[in-house]
Amino acid sequence: MPATRTRGVGIRWDPMQLAFAVLGGLVLLFIVAPLAGLFFFGGEPANVVAAAGNAELRDSIWLTLWTSMLATALLALAAVPFAYLLARKDFWGKRLVMGLVDLPTVIPHSAAGIAVLTVIARSSPLGQAAAGIGLDFVGHPAGIMVAMSFVSIPFLINAARDGFAAVPERLEKAALTLGASPLRVFLTIAVPLAWRAILSGFVLMWARGMSEFGAVVIVAYHPMTTPVLIWEWFGAYGLSYARPAAALFVLVCLVLFILLRLLARERDDA
Amino acid sequence: MLEVRNLSARWDGFAIDDISFSVAAGDYFVLLGPSGGGKTLVLEILAGLHPATGGTVLLDGREITGSRIQDRDLALVYQDRALFPHLTVHKNIAYGLAAQGVTRSKRLDRAAELAGQVGVAELLHRRPGTLSGGEAQRVALARALAREPKLLLLDEPLSALDIRAREKLRALLRQLHRAGNTIIHVTHDFEEAVSLASHVAIMAEGRIIQMGTRDEVFVEPRSRFVARFTGVDNFIEGEVTEAHDSSATFVADKATFQLAGAGFVGRGYLLFRRRDLEVHRQAPSPSPANLFTGRVVDLAPTRSGLEVRLDAQGLTLVAHVPRRQVAALELELGMEVYAVLREGAGRVVKA
């Protein structure tokens, strides 16, 4: 059977590939071992269930989930069209703009937090304007969302931009010759065809926002997101107290990501 | 209906210059020419995909040279179809109607009707990725026709298909033409042009070389490119120096031809088939009217014998040797031979 034979050739490893596989195994171990440790030492089901019973932790997980999700969704409204523009249009200063987009990923997150705080603090013009409508960013979920978005928006923009760039422009032109307006082409051709990449960027941004600690802790210590809460418990009560909380949070994140990935696959197969 | 005046443009290594032509309602206009001649660029300028650097395009008297793509009221079918991979055949065909604000149920009905017309009614729920080349091309045609455009632009619509699918699709294109559609069709395939066109423009190197009704162009070719396709292997530029009732003299470079007539005096082209040129090892006697000496520069076997290319008195002549004579002649490359144009063969076309 030729098919099996072809497959047989594929699984023959040469020495270099074997050596690289060993290196890969070490890297994987490096990633998996701490997580496994989290569950083996103190992350036993009983402890995790106990942690789940703690109202403070439950509230913080809920807060973290909805702020990161809402921040991603709100920013996506502007970021996805912006990514399309970056993928399709050449303009003067485009490289500079793309560099600016990447900036949040290269600065320390505590510094990012300070920068964000400077702009939205009560003393700043924006902070005063917000105060005028009764909103105080600092110590408010809105502040948490701003901090999360600042450090995570590059992931969505870049993923969506790559997704749009992979859509053949010819298809969009074909749609135009069929009388569709550019906005209709964007909504009915570009977005559906780049959907996978956009969703992947969405998940990345959300995950990055959810896990953000440095920027969030500076902008809004309270109400506490889970990363801040874990840090606080660790400082106040020590490792064994913080560990089940960390394990529970990791578990929640994993389940959500797997669900989203499955959702994306299903949509793709349909 | 369509009036193109002095169009010029440059794009991606292709350039067109001073292109003018007009297409009347109901015409099947074929732009024929070798690859790289700028035909597709013309089509894309008409559709608005590329800007023109000069000239004007009028559709029904309205200037559309700078109009937005979506406002042009003409439909382009791409060589590779460009069907939307995420939509079913049904929704692909209905796409243009949605942009016109036709209600969902009406546009799906209309799309199904069009699918029937182009012969893909049973494929409505398939995705483009699962279609054969011929099927995809039919869907692309239906999609383009859905908006009832004034003009249908086809870019090499048959070139990526196998022979059977090509023949069927040609029949469909003829049928669409008979149904009243005005079509501009770009191709490098002479057969396609002959079997479909009402009017033809020959394009090469960014210019239109010859234009007219199909018969005008193919009966009186004014370029080697067209001549070769019409089965004329010898296409010689020169001048008719004398023309009488039953004789004429045609001079090309160092060669002089005595012909049975010309009808004009001046620049022109001499056309004859390779079968009308005989090859001899010895000069025939009595010496015929059109006798040339030449050197064999290429020998190519054909189904019925041998094609002989001669370098003769500054001209390249193509002759044919029937199979029964091939052995006797023992031709070799570089050999000096005699070539005779058969009496009465050869006609001239005014330049």
Task: Walk me through what this model shows.
The complex is a heterodimer of chains A (270) and B (351). With 270 residues, chain A is mostly helical. Helix content of chain A is 82%, strand content 0%. The longest helix of chain A has 34 residues, at 55-88. The relative contact order of chain A is 0.13. In chain B, α2 (89-99) packs across α3, α2 runs parallel beside α4 (133-145) and α3 packs across α4 (133-145). Chain B contains nine helices and 20 strands. The longest helix of chain B has 16 residues, at 163-178. At the A-B interface, α9 and α10 of A face β6 and α2 of B.
Oligomer: heterodimer
**Number of strand segments of chain A:** 0
| Helical fraction of chain A | over 70%
Task: Please tally the helical runs of chain A, counting DSSP H or I stretches of 4 or more residues.
Answer: 14
**Which structural class best describes the helix and strand composition of chain B?**
alpha+beta
Number of helices of chain B: 9
Cα separation of the termini of chain B: 29 Å
What's the main sheet of chain B like?
6 strands, mixed
Output the keywords.
heterodimer, A: 270 residues, mainly alpha, 14 helices, disordered N terminus, B: 351 residues, alpha+beta, six-stranded mixed β-sheet
Topology:
The complex is a heterodimer of chains A (270) and B (351).
Chain A: H1 2-10, H2 15-40, H3 45-52, H4 55-88, H5 94-106, H6 109-120, H7 125-132, H8 141-165, H9 169-177, H10 182-193, H11 195-210, H12 214-219, H13 226-237, H14 239-269
Helix pairs in contact in A: 3-14, 4-8, 4-11, 5-8, 6-8, 8-11, 9-10, 11-14, 13-14
Chain B: E1 2-11, E2 14-23, E3 28-32, H1 39-47, E4 54-59, E5 62-63, E6 74-77, H2 89-99, H3 104-118, H4 133-145, E7 151-155, H5 163-178, E8 183-187, H6 190-196, E9 199-204, E10 207-213, H7 214-219, H8 224-229, E11 234-243, E12 248-252, E13 255-259, E14 266-272, E15 277-280, E16 291-302, E17 305-312, E18 315-322, H9 323-329, E19 336-341, E20 347-350
Parallel strand pairs in B: 3-8, 3-9, 6-7, 7-8
Antiparallel strand pairs in B: 1-2, 1-4, 4-5, 9-10, 11-12, 11-14, 12-13, 14-20, 15-19, 16-17, 16-19, 17-18
